[in-house]
UniProtKB/TrEMBL annotation:
Coiled coil: none
GO molecular function: 3'-5' DNA helicase activity; ATP binding; ATP hydrolysis activity; DNA binding
Annotated ranges, domain UvrD-like helicase ATP-binding: 10-244
The reaction(s) this protein catalyses: Couples ATP hydrolysis with the unwinding of duplex DNA by translocating in the 3'-5' direction; ATP + H2O = ADP + phosphate + H(+)
Protein's UniProt name: DNA 3'-5' helicase
Residues involved in ATP binding: A31, G32, P33, G34, T35, G36, K37, T38
Domain of life, per lineage: Bacteria
Family: Belongs to the helicase family. UvrD subfamily.
Keywords: ATP-binding, DNA-binding, Helicase, Hydrolase, Isomerase, Nucleotide-binding
Domain UvrD-like helicase C-terminal: 245-509
GO cellular component terms attached to this protein's record: cytosol; DNA helicase complex
EC number(s) from the headed UniProt entry: 5.6.2.4
Length: 561
């Protein structure tokens, strides 16, 4: 546990301190990338609890992904110690689930209701045909709710029951929402019910990183915060601690044409005069682009003959960079394959991260059902997941028995591997495990300590930072993304530009952008031009890499031994 007390705010800069120690009432923190939003948010909660005698159980901290919620929980534990356990930390969906569990009867649900999985939904859809009410009735008859209903049902319940609203307002007197720019209509309704207009609601976010409108998020809620909540206090954080000055300058220029933040400022806290410019590589082809990534990584990390295998150290000294410091970002998942192949050929370890939900993977639903229904499984949760996997796989080895859906044994094996980290994190709490699964726990192929290059989409990169970032496929048609032959509207292009901004601002020390002159899309090879987004950036901020002599990556066999 870190030291609490006056020292708590010492680790913040002046504006972060203003935000963290602001009095109660509505508070909006508008903060650009790398300005320390999570740091400020967690310190505010810790400060309120440790210094102002706010009870942790009166605090509710909401984020959008389970990963972000875990990160918040982890940081709060670090700042406050065991009392942090009393703070409610979760996603909007887990919050909805809590409210429904506590009010199942009032919501017309059985005590033991559960969230419909894919098989349940498919069955209900087949039986109900086109009739959406019949569909819901079928789910209800089996004590099931749909994922969407984790939010719509609590909103309906609270809208009709003033006393219930007051009870929750009394319980969660302090509410904190991270990434507020991503709220959608129903999440917003829920927040307005839980927080009175003059309540202690602290919303934090960056409108210029709003990248989820395709999922119904509406940055408009962020922009009109001060109309919705009385006498809202506004704090801006402008100091970016993450990126070198050239990277930050490029990012600020890139977002300028469609910034949603009036008078946006992002001042670099890092002013190293030696900081490298943004690398730009015009590749002849996708293969050439992948080769550039491999070559550059090879140069940055250096030959392995000097490296000990597991620590990224030379003779006990820390080397400048290791594979875990590097990320390759792209707009669409389809772009990953050539990069993965090229890295694999060079024996560079990779880990891919996606936004896929565990519950959507084949085999996962069957295992979850087995866990729920078979009482006889023994041991810790991870062991029970393994056993349930065996039971499911065996059932498929006996084709007279009903398997409950088409799952192959290898799917089951993969599913067990994917579920194990979640099972470990949930300790022995089966209910927690199942509810996290149901509310969208992501496939977690990412180990933050892994000595591997991370590959991820721009959407999945949100909130993260890496010393070295490659942003590949910065081409018209991919960024902004557009189907060949179609014209996206202005709003869609603006959102793509924000996505570009998110990508650029993940980089701490080195950033490389590349574009290929030819690329296969929709089955046809096409000529590509660089993204128009690059035009907003001064040429002087780029260091252009020519089509250098291809060099063979250094031998990495050592690593495999
Ligand atoms: P994003 O919008 O990308 O999510 P963010 O605003 O959440 O960014 P953080 O990830 O919290 O930013 O912080 C960015 C980096 O800056 C982190 O490495 C963090 O430790 C560091 N940082 C933040 N505030 C300070 C500070 N006052 N002093 C030193 N480092 C800081
Ligand atoms: Mg953040």
């Amino acid at each position: 546990m870190e030291e609490v007390g006056t020292g708590l705010l010492d680790r913040l800069d002046a504006m972060q301190r203003v935000a963290a120690s602001a009095p109660g009432g509505p508070l909006l923190i508008v903060a650009g990338p790398g300005t320390g939003k999570t740091r400020t948010l967690t310190h505010r909660i810790a400060y309120l609890c440790a210094e102002l005698n706010v009870f942790p159980e009166h605090c509710l901290a909401i984020t959008f992904t389970r990963r972000a919620a875990e990160e918040l929980r982890h940081r709060l534990d670090g700042l406050l110690g065991p009392v942090a356990e009393d703070i409610t930390v979760g996603t909007f969906h887990s919050l909805g689930l809590t409210i429904l569990r506590e009010n199942a009867a009032a919501a017309g649900l059985p005590e033991e209701f559960r969230i419909a999985d894919d098989a349940d939904r498919a069955a209900a859809r087949t039986e109900a045909g086109d009739d959406p009410t019949a569909y819901t009735a079928l789910l209800r008859k089996q004590g099931l709710v749909d994922l969407d209903e984790l939010l719509t049902l609590p909103v309906a319940l609270l809208s009709e029951d003033r006393a219930l609203v007051e009870r929750y307002r009394d319980r969660w007197r302090w509410i904190f929402v991270d990434e507020y720019q991503d709220v959608d209509a129903v999440q917003y309704d829920l927040l307005r019910l839980l927080s009175p207009p003059d309540g202690n609601l602290c919303a934090i976010g960056d409108p210029d990183q709003a990248i989820y409108s395709f999922r119904g998020a509406d940055v408009g809620y962020f922009l009109r915060f001060s109309q919705d909540f009385t006498d809202a206090r506004l704090v801006r954080l402008n100091r970016n601690y993450r990126s070198s000055a050239p990277i930050l300058a490029a990012a600020v220029q890139a977002i300028a044409p469609s910034s949603l933040v009036r008078g946006r400022r992002l001042d670099p806290a890092r002013l190293d005069p030696e900081a490298p410019l943004v690398g730009r590589y015009p590749a002849a082809s996708v293969a050439d682009e992948a080769d550039f990534v491999v070559r550059t990584i090879d140069d940055l990390v250096g030959g392995l003959s000097h490296r000990s295998l597991d620590s990224g150290r030379i003779d006990g000294r820390s080397t400048a960079l290791s594979f875990g410091d590097i990320a390759v970002l792209y707009r669409t998942d389809a772009q990953a394959a050539p990069i993965v192949d090229a890295l694999a050929r060079a024996n560079i370890p990779v880990q891919k991260r996606s936004h896929d939900r565990l519950r959507d993977r084949p085999g996962v639903a069957a295992i979850a059902r087995e866990l729920r229904h078979a009482g006889g499984l023994e041991g810790g949760l991870a062991a029970r997941v393994r056993l349930a996997g065996q039971v499911v796989a065996e059932r498929f080895a006996t084709p007279t028995l009903d398997g409950g859906g088409a799952v192959r044994p290898e799917d089951v094996r993969v599913a067990v591997d994917l579920l194990t980290p979640l099972a470990r994190r949930c300790g022995d709490d089966l209910e927690l495990f199942l509810s996290q699964l149901a509310t969208g726990a992501e496939v977690d192929a990412l180990d933050p300590r892994a000595e591997a290059v991370t590959l991820l989409t721009l959407h999945a990169a949100k909130g993260l930072e890496f010393p070295v970032v490659f942003l590949v496929g910065v081409e018209d048609g991919l960024l902004p993304l557009r189907w060949p032959g179609s014209t996206p509207d202005e709003d869609a292009v603006a959102e793509e530009r924000r996505l570009f901004f998110v990508g650029l601002t993940r980089a701490q020390d080195r950033l490389y952008v590349s574009h290929a002159a030819r690329r296969t899309r929709q089955g046809a090879e096409r000529e590509c031009t660089p993204s128009p987004f690059l035009d907003a950036i001064d040429a002087g901020l780029f260091e252009r890499f020519g089509e250098a002599e291809p060099r063979r990556p250094r031998d990495r066999q050592l690593r495999l031994l």
